[in-house]
Amino acid sequence: MQERRVAVRGIIFKDGKLLCQKLTAYRRNDRDFWCTPGGGLDMGELLEDGLRREMIEETGIEPKIGRLLFVQQFTEDGKKEQMEFFFLIENPEDYEIIDLSATTHGVEEVEQVE
Questions:
Q1: Which end of the chain has fewer CB atoms surrounding its CB within 10 Å, N or C?
Q2: Which DSSP state fits 1?
Q3: CB atoms within 10 A of CB 34
Q4: Band of pLDDT at residue 79, cut at 50, 70 and 90
Q5: Cα 90 from chain centroid (whole Å)
Q6: Pairing label, strands 17-18, 21-23
């Protein structure tokens, strides 16, 4: 049986721009990796609960979670399956200023937010 990681991500779209973050974990591999806020679910955690938790940990801001936009499925290195669920975030104006120093995980996980 193949291992599976389930992740949730928020889509914050305002004035024709998508909010993304550059993750520090990928800096070690000399990769310039950007993604939308979110992360992996804890065992038994509901999608929306996990997204709320991840976004607060990384941005310090509670999201208003809207509809599911799309699902992405792929494998990393041909061994570990990754499934990601992307939800619309309905309060994009709250994310105009993000203070990573005021978060529980932002400073250690996020290098840059734009």
A1: N
A2: -
A3: 15
A4: confident
A5: 15
A6: unpaired
